[in-house]
Specification:
There is one protein chain. By secondary structure, the chain is mostly helical. It contains seven helices and five strands. The protein is elongated, with a radius of gyration of 23 Å.
């Protein structure tokens, strides 16, 4: 979805009027520089644009639409000012502050606690279901991601003003190495047991109207 948006919003609007044979390395480099200067996008986003260009022209060369790949050696614009605190390592005090802040919102509290204790990505945490938790062997199985589609890729037939058409669904893990089973400690294990017991109580109280989620 992200790559599709890059094609639609950036490549087609800025390069779509060229014929393939007219596009050179200079054309693409100037385009990248222009996007950086005018839009101020992050280095990571510009790298995604470069990746789409390179892969697209790889396809073009493989199918002999062009002889060489003009995107093969594009350079990202130089970022003079490095971003501050790129990787912030939370202190124990900060973690406790966050947990205390959300202790009454159990969906956020237990998701954050799980991420903190395991190092799982946020999409992996929210994709967990109870059958992924092995309480006996004290492990968590990571076998899916939680993903979303925007309005263009949604399942609703029409868009009503003010109503979101975002659709959440389970998807595959990012890479093959993302499929894994990890051990968990007693702190998280006991917390999840408590959360599961709470959900089972709510399910019993609300019956068919209860919507179950980890």
């Amino acid at each position: 979805e992200a790559y599709s948006n890059i094609v639609k919003n950036h490549l087609k609007t800025n390069l779509g009027f060229y014929k393939l044979s007219q596009i050179t390395k200079t054309t693409l480099q100037e385009f990248l520089n222009k996007v950086y200067v005018e839009k101020g996008y992050s280095k990571n986003f510009l790298n995604n644009i470069r990746k789409v260009l390179k892969c697209s022209f790889n396809y073009a060369t493989d199918n002999e639409y062009v002889r060489v790949n003009p995107a093969a050696n594009l350079k990202l614009p130089k970022y003079d000012v490095p971003p501050k605190d790129v990787v912030h390592i939370f202190t124990a005090e900060e973690i406790n502050t966050i947990l205390e802040r959300f202790k009454k919102n159990h969906c956020i509290y237990y998701a954050f606690l799980t991420a903190y204790c395991t190092g799982l990505r946020i999409a992996e945490v929210f994709a967990l279901t109870w059958d992924d938790i092995d309480f006996e062997n004290k492990t968590i199985s990571v076998n899916k991601n939680i993903l979303k589609k925007n309005q263009a890729g949604g399942t609703k037939q029409r868009h009503l003003s003010g109503n979101s058409t975002t659709v959440w669904y389970f998807g595959t893990c990012k890479t093959q190495t993302s499929y894994r089973t990890i051990p968990i400690g007693d702190t998280l294990l006991n917390a999840l047991k408590k959360y599961k017991k709470e959900q089972e109580m709510h399910k019993s109280n609300y019956g068919d109207t209860y919507y179950e989620a980890l």
